[in-house]
Amino acid sequence: MDRTLRGDWSSYVDEVPRDLVAANGVGSLESIEQSKRHRHDKAQLLYCARGVINCEVEDGVWIVPPQCAIWIPGGLPHAAFGSGEVECICLFVAPDAAAGRPVTCCTIAISDLLRHLLIRASELPERYDVDGPDGRIVAVILDELAKAPVEQLCLPIPSDQRLKQLAELLVSSPADHATVAEWAGRVALSERSLSRILMDEIGMSFGHWRRQLHVILALRRLSAGETVQTVALDLGYESASSFVTMFRKMVGKPPIRYLVERQTSVSLRSSDPPKPRLRRHKRIAVSHARPSR
C-alpha cells in the first residue's frame, strides 16, 4: 500500500470524493511540539493507539490517551501534538455522513469492535467501492461512532481574557500552592469574581478546573514513562498516594490502571509490509500518512 507521507493532508482529504478517508501515522516525539493550527471541511476522528495525543481548539485542550479518540467537527480550527512514541489512526468524515454526530469536540472511548474497524479502515483503498464490502464496512464504522461513549478529558478554556491568562499561569506552575484568592489576584480579579466567571463560562469550580489540568498533565508524562512518584511531586502533591486519590476521583481509576487498560490492545502493526516511519528529530509534530489509493 502507498503510505507516502504528505505535507498537505489536511486540505487533501477534502478533495477525496468519499464519505470516509483514513490515514495512519507513527512518530517518535522526544518533546512536545504543537502542529500548525488548521481546519478541513470533513470532520475528523483522531484515534490514539499508543502514546498520548493532545488537541487544542479555541475553547479547550483535549487529551487523547491510548485506546481513546477525539471527535473534531468539520471546519473547526485545531492543532494536534503529542509526547513519547505516538501511533494513531485518523478518519475524516464527510459533512453529510457526519450528520447526527457531535457538533462539538469530545473524547470518546473505543470499543474492541470499533478499534478493529478503525484498523480495517486504515487499509481501505482511497476510493473504495461505496456499493461493495468496503462501503458496508464504512457504514458500520459510522454507526459505531454514533453510539460510542464520551469521556470528559478536556481542559475547558474560558473566553474571558483574564482567565485565559490564568490558565497559562496554571500550566506553567502546576505545583504552585497559592490560594484561590491569590490566583485571582494575579489576574486582577477577586476570589468571588473568579469563581463566578468560571462557573458561568465552563461550569466548574476553580478546584475542579485545576484538578482537570493536573489529570491532563499527568497523563502526558506518565504515558512517556515517568513514574507516579515523580509526576505527583512535580504537580505539588505531598505523596504519590494523595495524587492517586485525586486521579481516581476525577477519572474513576488510578492512573497506572487507567493507562494499562488502554495499552493492552494489539498494535496497529501487522504482517503487512512495514509502513514508513517519521525520521527522529528532537522535535516533530504528529504527522499523518497519505491514504492508499
Written account of the structure:
By secondary structure, the chain is an alpha+beta fold. It folds into 2 domains: 9-151, Jelly Rolls, CATH 2.60.120.810; 158-262, Homeodomain-like (Arc Repressor Mutant, subunit A, Orthogonal Bundle). It contains 10 helices and 8 strands. Strands 1, 2, 3, 4, 5, 6, 7 and 8 form an 8-stranded antiparallel sheet that branches. The longest helix is centred in the last third of the chain and has 18 residues, at 206-223. The protein starts with 8 loop residues before the first helix and ends in a 30-residue tail after the last helix. Residues 1-6, 28-33 and 265-293 have low confidence and may be disordered.
Describe the secondary-structure layout:
Layout: H1 9-12, E1 20-29, E2 43-57, E3 60-64, E4 68-72, E5 79-93, E6 106-109, H2 112-121, H3 133-146, E7 150-151, E8 154-156, H4 161-172, H5 180-186, H6 191-202, H7 206-223, H8 228-234, H9 240-251, H10 255-263
Antiparallel strand pairs: 1-5, 2-3, 2-4, 2-5, 3-8, 4-6, 6-7
Which CATH architecture of the largest domain? Sandwich
Total helices: the number is 10
> Looking at CATH, which topology of the largest domain would you report?
Jelly Rolls
**Secondary-structure class:** alpha+beta
Strand content: 15-25%
How far apart are the termini?
A: 8 Å
CATH class bucket of the largest domain: Mainly Beta
3D shape = globular
Please tell me the overall pLDDT. Answer: 80
- For the CA atoms, what is the radius of gyration? 20 Å
Runs in which pLDDT lies below 50 for 5 or more consecutive residues are 1-6, 28-33, 265-293
How would a crystallographer describe the biggest sheet? 8 strands, antiparallel
Write the element-wise H/E pattern from the N-terminal end onward: HEEEEEEHHEEHHHHHHH
**Percent range for helical residues?**
25-40%
- Compute the number of structural domains: 2
